[in-house]
Design brief:
Number of helices: 8
Distance between the termini: 67 Å
Strand content: 15-25%
Order of helices and strands: HHHEEEHHEEEEHEEEEHH
Radius of gyration: 20 Å
Shape: globular
Helix content: 40-55%
Largest sheet: 5 strands, antiparallel
Strand order of the largest sheet: 1-2-3-5-4
Structural class: alpha+beta
Length: about 270
């Protein structure tokens, strides 16, 4: 009798989760304006992804979705809450985009964490989500300013929400004024990643650095590589060059590339 009771309780829980996810998907469909956006909703919430969301809700990781806060060609980021109502960010990587595999394989190949992995299209996306989660975890444990990773399941990554009232914090590019102090803050984060976490961001720019509570918070770590990666040094030079160029163009006194590299690696 107890087995049947447990089964019935579980069935009701699953049905409740299904209703919550289905309601959100219906709301998204009502907001779309054209067929291209409709296809995007269908692509984000394919059956496999919906089942992954069910699992994360059932595990007490995700409570409710609030809305899209970032939409790119490879992923959508949603503001959400955990079951206690605390804000979280849910990043859903698209599993059907061919562009994803073409643009990101160079960051997976050469990474010893993925040696021997069979990379069919969907598996590439799952590997990418796992890679971002692992990179965030390494960075966070090293003391770098990054969103705290919470959970990763297949193509869904759950992490700390950076911002207020489900509105993301401003990125460096959108700040009305930047200073030499901010430049040195960012450079220090690059140093912590390199020296303590053994990571190079590999795509760092003013577009993927929040500035929140007087701190630069680096995000988008899917392409980040270990310092042992064959292209790590080239990526590091590119990262630092991007940051120097941004601050210099905003009229800030900056270090030259060689000095900045010496500081980061010392």
């Amino acid at each position: 009798m107890g087995v049947f009771k447990d089964f019935e309780v579980r069935r009701k829980v699953v049905e409740k989760l299904e209703r919550r996810v289905d309601r959100y998907i219906r709301e998204q469909r009502m907001l779309v304006k054209d067929s291209e956006h409709e296809e995007t909703v269908e692509e984000v919430f394919d059956r496999a992804t919906v089942m992954t969301i069910y699992k994360l809700m059932n595990a007490g990781v995700i409570g409710e979705f609030k809305g899209v806060v970032s939409a790119g060609k490879e992923a959508r980021v949603y503001a959400a809450t955990d079951p206690e109502g605390n804000p979280i960010a849910v990043k859903i990587f698209l599993t059907k985009t061919a562009e994803f595999r073409r643009g990101r394989m160079k960051y997976i190949l050469g990474d010893p964490r993925f040696e021997g992995m069979r990379l069919a299209d969907r598996n590439v996306v799952y590997a990418w989500a796992a890679k971002e989660y692992k990179n965030l975890k390494l960075a966070h444990e090293a003391g770098a300013y990054v969103p705290r990773p919470i959970k990763q399941e297949k193509n869904v990554l759950v992490m700390e929400f950076i911002g207020e009232n489900f509105t993301p914090a401003p990125i460096l590019k959108d700040l009305p004024r930047v200073t030499e102090y901010m430049f040195l803050q960012v450079l220090r984060q690059v140093r912590i990643l390199y020296r303590r976490a053994g990571l190079v961001h590999a795509d760092l720019s003013e577009y993927n650095i929040f500035y929140y509570k007087r701190k630069p918070i680096l995000f988008d770590f899917g392409q980040a590589v270990l310092t042992s990666h064959p292209n790590a040094e080239a990526y590091l030079v590119r990262d630092i060059s991007n940051i120097i160029q941004f601050f210099r163009e905003r009229g800030v006194a900056v270090l030259d590339l060689d000095t900045a590299l010496e500081y980061v690696k010392a």
